[in-house]
Amino acid sequence: MVDSTLAEMGKNLNEAMKLLEDNQRKVEEEHEKKYTRKDIPGPLQGSGQDMVSILQLVQNLMHGDEDEESLQSYRLQNVGEKGHMALLGHSLAAYISVLDRERLRKLTTRILSDTTLWLCRLFRFENGSAYYHEDDREGVLKICRLVIHSRYEDYTTEGFNVLYSKQPVIYVSSAARSGLGQSLCNQLGLPLSCMCHVPCNTMFGSQHQMDVALLDRLIKEDIESGKLPILLVANAGTPGAGHTDKLGRLKELCEQHSMWLHVEGVNLATLALGYVSSSVLTATKCDSMTLTLGPWLGLPAVPAVTLYRHEDPSLSLAAGLTSSQAVDKLRALPLWLSLQYLGHNGIVERIKHASHLSQRLLENLKNQDFIKTSVEDELSSPVVVFKFSPEYPHKDSDPMLQATQIPPMTGNERYICDTFNQWLGDQLAQLVPASGVDIVELEDEGTCVRFSPLMTSAVLGTEVQDVDQLVECLKMKVPVLTCTLQLREEFEHQVRRTLGLAFVEDLTWPGLGVIRYEGQNEDQQEKDREKINAGLLKKLNELESDLVFSLGPEFGGEKNCIYIGMATEDLDVSELVETIAATGREIEENSRLLENMTEVVRKGIEEAQVQLQKANEERLLEEGLLRQIPVVGSVLNWFSPFHASPKGQTFNLTAGSLESTESTYASKAQGSGTTPPPTPTSSRNKQRLPGQKRFRRSLRNSDAFSETSSVSHADDLDRGEPRWPSASPAGQEASPDPVEPSEPLAPDTTGEKPPTPAGADVTPPEPEVSLR
């Protein structure tokens, strides 16, 4: 029989999870939430609320005002039944804590002993004890306290005075987690001089492994200076590249100097598999290790575990590794429930699946051009780190030929490659979110893309098809990166030689380049330049092209610049630059015309007022003084009407001047005035194929088109005819092909005109006028 309280707790948990995971919200609730002040704390209601209302409030606080699409993309992890067991463990821990002391002691002892035994057998750590903690750095912190208590016998009574006489030293690899050494010193109350960062190998072996020879020399120097080496933190899978230190040699070195060896890293998960690499298997001989089972197995809210070997329980209690409080032992309850739910086979299967995913990606990357991998063991590497590198051409080419043909990259080129790899990692993470790839900064390789399925696959549910999709996306992005990198130099050269354009050097921009339209006026103000570049950006985005034009990054970008994105191999750089320059000149001239319009209109109005006053004076002299008298003028106009020619003025906005209206009264039609100036356009108005976008070369028909054009042009020159068709009279269609007469026409020597056919129009056609 199951306790009714436990059954009710499990039922309530299932109902609560269904409410929290239900993303279908009603329209009425969304409408009401827009007007509620849910983000502002309010008073506690006196009558209280039911569980459904409270859970609804929690859901609203979790998701906020997100719409349905963003909500689905945000909640990538489905907790599932295994996650419900871990969450149930937290609820049970709160329920068990109210039991009487004797029952609580028996239950917590059983839970703690079972979980410790399972983990020690699963990860091959014999005769070990376990410490369960929320923060993964807390385990090594407690180990440091344990080692200090062990090496300094009077530390419990004397405190820091014992450490002052003989300063302890903790050694951490330079490839370890950032901030680990400083965090340990702050928590232990030690100066930063007690922390020694050991560099990695620079000449031989992996560049992410600790330099054992240098470590040995550092330890001897510290001993000679009166310090006491107490602890070494090694890695079985560095946080960046996932490499494993030489644990065998490090263990020998620690035994030689009576030091404690602590190991952490993602590769420790492979200890549960049947086949384990020798470098990782040596971790079972270390003094302690930290396991992060939550991301490995996809279990939410389960603690990390630090397994250690020590014979004195009093020192473990003093260091905080064990507790006399039964409630503290309940930390292992969620893990105890989850391990039983998964079973030994389920745990091994999850870790094996993650290792299989990394091996599948690594095998596909071996045949990928321009991709450099950084793995420790190609046969078994849980973490795959790769990057785009132009130094790595086709895999089938000769290595000796590669070394002679490809020059080493300079500083700027390496910086550009880091920028491109940053873009590549963002694109892959966006296109295949289930893969869990992220970006990592390595000291020697620079910016790389990392695939660590042991940390992400169980949470995101990564499958083999996700890895295959990742490879396909990578194959599509690598040619884009290669072409853009090759065209950057040509683009910079074309921009620098074009009048009015300025090339802006920005190595952090992943694209073709950055330009700014300076214009023809050097004294142009910054505000005017900003308007011109903003209008130019708008015009470029309206064009039908594959390029992306933007203002650049939100933070840290150059002002008044146009950022051009990635390019393809068929990009016509010359046409692109000329189009940008021509469009910029057009916008600049239009803006200059608008700026001068106010001044022109003002001067025109003043001149018109002067002309009107002058016309009134002339009319007064012409009509005479008597006609201006009201009564006399009417009588005089009746006997002798005065006929004046109509005169007027018109203001031409294009020319900015006053013009007479005599021609308007004569022709009874208003003229068009001066022809406006032609709009500047690019000189490369090449003919595009149907469906072909701007700035693209026709790779398939370019050679054939050039040959056909040259032959046709030669035939036209031989015949003495122009290449373009002649204009046809109105109402007649032009023949596409010229009709050659069968016999040559004799010249007309009679001087008489040929007879005109009946009904034909004898009016000669007006010449066509084209505005260019």
From TrEMBL:
Keywords: Coiled coil, Decarboxylase, Lyase, Pyridoxal phosphate
Region (Disordered): 662-772
The keyword Kinase is annotated on this UniProt entry: no
One Gene Ontology biological process: carboxylic acid metabolic process
Cofactor(s) for this UniProt protein: pyridoxal 5'-phosphate
Compositionally biased intervals (Polar residues): 662-673, 701-712
Domain PDXDC1/PDXD2 second stretches: 381-485
Biased composition (Basic and acidic residues): 713-722
Domain PDXDC1-like third: 491-592
Cited InterPro entries: GrpII_AminoAcid_Decarb, PDXDC1-like_2nd, PDXDC1-like_3rd, PyrdxlP-dep_de-COase, PyrdxlP-dep_Trfase, PyrdxlP-dep_Trfase_major
Coiled-coil region: 6-33, 598-625
Biased amino acid composition, Basic residues: 685-699
Superkingdom assignment: Eukaryota
A GO molecular-function annotation: pyridoxal phosphate binding
Family note: Belongs to the group II decarboxylase family.
PANTHER family: PTHR42735, PYRIDOXAL-DEPENDENT DECARBOXYLASE DOMAIN-CONTAINING PROTEIN 1-RELATED (PTHR42735:SF1)
Protein name: Pyridoxal-dependent decarboxylase domain-containing protein 1
Natural source organism: Anolis carolinensis
